[in-house]
Specification:
Number of helices: 3
CATH superfamily: RNA polymerase II/Efflux pump adaptor protein, barrel-sandwich hybrid domain
Oligomer: single chain
CATH architecture: Beta Barrel
Strand order of the largest sheet: 1-2-3-9-8-5
Shape: globular
Strand content: 35-45%
């Protein structure tokens, strides 16, 4: 099930509006399923500047280590500290408690250029 109210990247990150110009970011159910059991997540510090398309962290599973890419450019304003020592929350609830960071977007309109649920569904069906 792909939530209709989120935006997505081809690298399997999702964005949800959190506040004016601020977006929660996480990895999709498709991504966590492909990774398998997630055991560790490395996230940026609050205040870090990120550029759209650049790696800003890593998710480590029992199978591999995968980069997390910034869906939009901006500043990290919150990090999900609940994942420290409990990264498996991403597997259990990737669209809820398993969120990774909150980003204050440099250009909130850039979110509109990301994939909607139907386009992301098509991407994952064909991969």
């Amino acid at each position: 099930m792909i939530p209709e109210d989120l935006r997505y990247t081809a690298e399997h990150e999702w964005l949800a509006p959190a506040d004016a110009g601020v977006f929660k970011v996480g990895i999709t159910d498709f991504a966590q399923e492909a990774l398998g059991d997630i055991v560790f997540v490395q996230l940026p510090e609050v205040g870090a500047k990120v550029q759209a398309g650049d790696s800003f962290g890593e998710v480590e599973s029992t199978k591999s280590v995968s980069e997390i890419y910034a869906p939009v450019s901006g500043e990290v304003v919150a990090v999900n500290s609940a994942l420290d020592g409990a990264a498996e929350v991403i597997n259990a609830d990737p669209y809820g408690a398993g969120w990774l960071v909150e980003l204050k977007a440099d250009d909130p309109a850039a979110v509109d250029a990301l994939l909607d649920a139907a386009a992301y569904q098509e991407l994952t069906t064909n991969s």
